[in-house]
Amino acid sequence: MKLQETLEHLNFSRLEAQIYMALIGSEPMSAYQLAKKIAIARPSIYNALEHMLDKGMVELVPDQTALYAAQEPEVLLGRMQAEMTANLSLARQQLEEYETAKQPEVHFVFRGFETAMARAGKLLEDAREEVYLNADFDLSRFAETFHRLKKKGVRIVAFSFYDLGLNREDVEFYTHGGMLTAHQPSRLMLVTDRQMTLTADCGAFANWSGTVSNNGLMVKILSEHIQHDITLLQLQEKYGLEMH
Questions:
Q1: Where are the alpha helices (DSSP H) in the chain?
Q2: What is the C-alpha separation between 96 and 108, in angstroms, rounded?
Q3: How far is Cα 98 from Cα 23, in angstroms, rounded to an integer?
Q4: What is the reported pLDDT for 162?
Q5: pLDDT, mean over the chain
Q6: Average pLDDT over residues 212-216
Q7: Which of 132, 129, 183, 173 is nearest to 152 (CA)?
Q8: How far is residue 228 from each of residues 225, 233, 243, measured CA to CA in Å?
Q9: pTM (2 decimals)?
Q10: Phi and psi of 243, rounded to 5°?
C-alpha cells in the first residue's frame, strides 16, 4: 500500500497505480486479465489503460496489441523528473511575470546627483539576478555593492565609452577605453532584473535629474539600448571597423 500511495503522489490515479503495480514484474496482460486481477469492471480498465498509454506509464507489446506491459521504472521516473523540472521552471517564469504584471506601476522623478546615486545604490542592493548599466563617471562608490552582488550570483553587465576602472572579476565591463579624467559626468542608465530602471543625466545646465520606473516599455528600451552598445563594440573589436 505504501507504493500505491507514493505513485498516487506522483500523479497516478488510484486505478492507474493498481494497474501499474499489477503489471510491473509480471508477464504482459490483457485488459481482461487486469480487470480480473484487480477486481474491477473492464470498461474502467480500458479507459485507464488509454490514459496510461498517453502518459507513457504502460506500453503495448509489439505484435500483441491486446497485451500491456509496465514501462520500466527508470525510464518512467526519468521522464517524469524531466517533465517536473521543465514545469517548475515554466511555473517560476510565469509566476514572476504574473507578479510583475499585477504590481502597480512605479514612477519616481528626482533631482540631484547624490539622489541619483542613492537611488541607484538601492536598486543595485535589491537586484537578485541581473544588472545592466551604462555610465560615464567613476563608479568606485559601488565597488562593495558590486562585490556583494557577485557573491550572491548576480550578473553585472556594464558599458561605457570611458574606462571606468571597474573590477572585471565583479563586472562584465565593455568600454571604448576613452580617458575619464577629461570628461564631465553626464549620465547613468540602470536596469535590474529586467523589472526596474533608473535613468539620470546632468541636463543642459549640469543640474542632475532622473526617473525610477518599472514600466515595461522603459525596461525593454534601456535593456536593448545597453545590449546594442555592447554588440556594436564587439563587432568593432572583431572587424576593426567604426560601427554606428
A1: 2-9, 14-23, 31-38, 42-54, 73-102, 113-126, 143-151, 216-239
A2: 23
A3: 43
A4: 87
A5: 89
A6: 91
A7: 129
A8: 5, 9, 11
A9: 0.57
A10: -100, 140
